[in-house]
Amino acid sequence: MTTPRQGFGPDGRPLCFNREPMREYVANDGTERISDDTIAQRIYAIPWAFSVGCKSWASDPSTDPVPLAEGWKCGGCIHYPSELVDLALSRRHDRKLREAK
Question: How much is the pTM?
Answer without folding.
Answer: 0.65
